[in-house]
Design brief:
By secondary structure, the chain is mainly beta. It has one domain. The protein contains one helix and eleven strands, in the order βββββββββαββ. It has one helix at residues 89-98, and strands at 2-3, 7-8, 19-23, 28-30, 33-36, 41-50, 60-70, 73-78, 80-84, 112-113, 122-123. Strands 1, 3, 6, 7, 8, 9 and 11 form a seven-stranded antiparallel sheet that branches. A two-stranded antiparallel sheet has the order 2-10. A two-stranded antiparallel sheet has the order 4-5. 19% of the residues are buried.
Length: 173
């Protein structure tokens, strides 16, 4: 998440319960499917404010995330961000040593959470998610292999003609 507005204790106008705008900075995915897209609007709330003050007291802001709106739903979130200004303690100590009344006028700095500050958020509720049914896979069934038939050998038999026996010639007389 990132803040869309800046928050500051400067001017002492920021109050506990003030709601501010956030947006999703990085898509949230489940199994490769985006369930909360980038840019989805979200809301945060200021939970604690301390304005800068006398004796070097710095300002302090604490916030929390409330929810994000995505796909027609409002989803509860958790996560927080805070900032503390710089204390003026060193100035107060130095001034108190020299002139005790001066510490009364030394203040710390205001707390600042600038526009675009990143906040890590977490989904705080079970959210039903449905995915489109995958297209059925084409199943390829191979044709059955033709049975292997051994080639039939053709045997040609040649019948031998009977061999005539020589006839003996009759004696001549």
């Amino acid at each position: 998440m990132k803040t869309l507005v800046g928050l500051t204790t400067e001017g002492k106008k920021l109050k506990v319960g003030h709601r501010f705008e956030l947006e999703v900075a990085e898509a949230v995915s489940v199994d490769g499917q985006v369930v909360i897209p980038v840019g989805s609007p979200a809301v945060g709330e200021v939970t604690s404010v301390r304005n800068k003050g006398m004796w070097g007291k710095s300002g302090h802001i604490e916030t929390r995330m409330l929810y994000v709106r995505a796909n027609g739903r409002q989803i509860r979130l958790s996560g927080s961000i805070d900032d503390k200004g710089v204390t003026g303690t060193a100035g107060v100590v130095a001034a108190a040593v020299l002139i005790p009344v001066v510490g009364f006028f030394v203040t710390g700095t205001s707390a600042q959470i600038p526009v675009g500050s990143n906040i890590t958020g977490f989904v705080q509720e079970d959210v039903p998610v449905t995915f489109p049914a995958p297209a059925p896979l084409a199943v390829v069934v191979p044709a059955p292999a033709a049975p292997m038939i051994a080639p039939v050998a053709t045997v040609t038999t040649v019948a031998a003609a009977p061999v005539a026996e020589p006839v003996a010639a009759a004696p001549q007389e």
